[in-house]
Design brief:
The complex is a heterodimer.
Chain A lengths: L1 H29 L6 H21 L2 H4 L1 H28 L8 H22 L4 E2 L8 E4 L2 E4 H23 L1 H11 L1 H6 L4 H27 L1 E2 L3 H16 L4 H21 L5 H15 L14
Antiparallel strand pairs in A: 1-4, 2-3
Helix pairs in contact in A: 1-6, 1-9, 1-10, 1-11, 2-4, 2-5, 2-9, 2-10, 4-9, 6-7, 6-9, 7-9, 10-11, 10-12, 11-12
Chain B lengths: L5 H50 L17 H17 L2 H26 L8 H18 L3 H23 L4 H21 L1 H4 L5 E2 L5 E2 L2 E2 L3 H23 L2 H11 L1 H6 L4 H27 L1 E2 L6 H14 L4 H17 L7 H15 L15
Antiparallel strand pairs in B: 1-4, 2-3
Helix pairs in contact in B: 2-8, 3-8, 3-11, 3-12, 3-13, 4-5, 4-6, 4-11, 5-11, 9-11, 12-13
Chain lengths: ~300, ~375
Amino acid sequence: MLLQQFINGLTLGSVYALIALGYTMVYGILELINFAHGEIYMLGAYLGIIILGFLTAIGLTAYSLPLSIFIMLALTVLFCSSYGFTIEKIAYKPLRNAQRLSPLISAIGVSIFLQNYVMLTQGATDKVFPQVFGSAGFELFSTRITYLQAAIITTSGVMMAMLHVFVMKTKTGKAMRSVAQDKLMASLVGIDIDRVISITFILGSGLAAVAGIMVAMYYGLVNYSIGYSAGIKAFTAAVLGGIGSIPGAMLGGIVLGILESFGSSYISSEYKDAYAFIMLILILLVKPEGLLGKRGEEKI
Amino acid sequence: MTILKGKRSLLMMTLVIPLWLSFLFLPFKGIRAAGILFVVMAAAIPLSKLAADLIGRIRSPFPDLRRFVPEGARLNFLLLIPALLIPLFGQDYITDVAILSGIYIILALGLNVVVGFTGLLNLGFVAFYAIGAYCYALLNTKAGIGFWSAMPLSVVLTTAAGFLLAVPALRLKGDYLALVTLGFGEIVRLVLNNWDTFTNGPNGISGIAPPFLAGTPIGRLSWFYYLVLIFVIINAFVMKRVRSSKTGRAWMAIREDEIAASAMGINTLMYKLYACAFGAFWAGLAGTLFAAKMRFVSPESFTFMESVFILCMVIIGGIGSIGGVVVGALVLVFLPEVLREVQMYRMLALGCGLVFLMVFRPQGLFGGRNASSSR
């Protein structure tokens, strides 16, 4: 029972971690709470359904299921990254030097727009994600793990590892870190800030897209309003780990997922959504820099 | 005057941007809709750019509306006369919407104290509205207390809630403060939704008594309208006086530069606490009026979107400007009613409008140099 809840929490938590990475990367570079990030995750879930439906219609799923899942993932990531890129160009880039409140309001605007955009084009009712994995699974230490859960945990782990390598080892990753530290200095040494910010949004949105597909598969149902609560939870995860810190976001997501899973099975499932908020408030009040974050100095 | 900057920008506007946006739209509605979108945008984007360039001096699509608004007292009378006449000429439906907009004006002006005057972003303001509404609902249905005795109680309780949240939350700044308030708003809603024995859960509380005046219930809409109007006038008057008082100036000093303000001897924490409590005070009043008007409350009325909606009222009109906030509230309540035909698209338009407003006119339609940044 304990281990079962742990696995459930780990599954959910690794998804939160993937979304949280997008928040933390954007916040690290722009100091902006990208309110629309949760909607990218929702778009990912919808695009997964749409593309899989299309592939079924042309008969590819019947021919080869792994291939069509791969194509679905690739296309969804492509589309979501494009959305992230476009949103940044339209709604955030013109506001880069504006007052602090403006980009946040703009982000809320984008979030409202995307929710209603999906509601109008795809309908307000729940959409069903085809059960490609079924409920098959295996037993480990007398705990049942479905293949889907295993796939979610592995995929998230691999993606986080890849992101870590990208940020720490590649030249672009180095540029990202330097922009996060000091934008002006970075631009003085010849880093194209606009390009780095675009890449950040593309990467974050791609991760959110994968998270969206995986959650859609896990729950089987998708609704246009799922982005908001997932976004808030992922943001909580990012703050918990220390906003701006990439390992922090991973840790925060997993901790939050496990906490939520234990909370809803041992305390009360009615307040399932409240745990994240209570957690958020407690961290901000007690340790605003998070588990792995560094305490920032206030600039005058 | 260059109308278009060469061939490259023309190509961007007629081909690249529309093609890109249609590509993004493609999976959601199919190839035909995407094609239509492409044609529409390929025509609309260059045309609107051309129009904007031709007008030339007006750089933003949102003109400075203050030029058309008379200053000071005259404005109040101009707004008041039609406001007094609404129930005489309008149908019940219009009076109904007017009552709602009055309640929203009180709410938005309350939030304006926190966001506009003091520069603290609050994303969970609806929590205080909910507390006010539920206080009256519970006091009335469980204890049988009437409107006039319950109102002070629920307002005091809401003010206390505002104060109590502010004490720990004000240690944080900027976005973090916004998030704590958001979390608070959601927790209040979840508690109202799940505490079945006390709040009756998602079903809400019905059978709330209307206010009594001289022993008779105010059942007629027009009477209730005048009741709300009186509170709106009191509210706007108090706001105007407070803004130019010592407290109001201290708030605005904090908004402009907190460190400088504290260097000038302002107890910034104290004044921020006042602002939060004062804002919550009006939210409590609005909540009480709402519960008395609807005679029914449920957690559904107090979602995060409602907080955003109130925030939009403050921002659209112009952060910090009292007249602007009133107009913002009127626009956001009446516009959806006018646009009932295209109701499906109104939230879409609201989202778009917010983004464009921030990009082209971040200080709001009526905002001037008084309402500057809130960091």
